[in-house]
Every structure is written in C-alpha cells, then in structure tokens.
Design goal:
This protein is of the alpha+beta class. 32% of the residues lie in helices and 32% in strands. Helix 1 packs across helix 2.
Length: 138
C-alpha cells in the first residue's frame, strides 16, 4: 500500500508542518526557541508509539490490559554528521494488577521481533535494547 506525506516550511527558522495522506498534522522544529520536536526526536517518539500500540493490543487480547503504560527512551548518537542514533534503549513501564512478567515479556518480544515496523527499520542501523518494570499500584 502506498503512503504519502507532505512537509512545508512555515517561513521562519526551521519550523515545519507535515501532513499525512489522511490529513493528520504534525509540527517540527529544531534549535534554540524551537516550537516543536525535531525530526530526530520524532523518530524516538514514533518508535515508542509503534511498539506501545502493539504491546497494548497483545496484552488486551490476553486480558492483561495495563492500567498505566509508558516508555522511556535513552538514545546515543554518533558524534559526527549525519549524527545517526547508534544505540537506543527502551524501558517499558507498566502498572496493573492483572500483569505478570511472562505476559509482558511475550508482548514486548512479539512487538519488537514481529510487528513494530520502526523497530525493524532501526535495528539495522542502531543497537536496540529494552527492559521493563511492572510498578506496584500503590
């Protein structure tokens, strides 16, 4: 299936606005006084979002839906241009009384190895790692 996007410069500094083929809008910027996330920061957010959607779907289908779920990312980038990400670590965080380690590990593994297209694209150029923690509800 073909996907399209359009990015336009907003006329000042590095501010950009992107739109998708179904009309969704995202702003981008970089540098001091930026009004939005940079394209590189959006890559990290997109990676987390991609795998999180998979994990929620897998856990929900297993009747293990989390009460809260967030991912923290730490990335290292090359010191020289094009300053690609060389390492990315995702820490999955959950709260939920129905969650157990085996269900969480299975969901993360399925997402990272089978479903998340951004994980698949980035693993060829960066060292990807992950961990998780199930937090107490109290």
């Amino acid at each position: 299936m073909k996907k399209t996007a359009k990015i336009k410069w907003l006329g000042e500094g590095f501010a950009l606005e992107g739109s998708t083929d179904n009309g969704k809008i995202v702003k981008m910027d970089t540098g001091e006084g930026a009004i939005a996330a940079s394209p590189a920061q959006l890559i990290l957010q997109a990676l987390a979002g991609c795998t999180m959607m998979d994990v929620v779907l897998i856990l929900t289908k297993s009747r293990k839906k989390p009460e809260k779920f967030w991912v923290e990312l730490v990335a290292e980038e090359a010191e020289t241009h094009p300053k690609v990400f060389t390492k990315i670590h995702l820490k999955y965080n959950f709260t939920g009384s129905l969650l157990d380690s085996s269900s969480v590990e299975r969901a993360i593994k399925l997402s990272e190895e089978n479903y998340c297209r951004l994980h698949a694209m980035l693993k060829g150029s960066a060292e990807l790692s992950s961990s998780y923690q199930i937090h107490n509800n109290s």
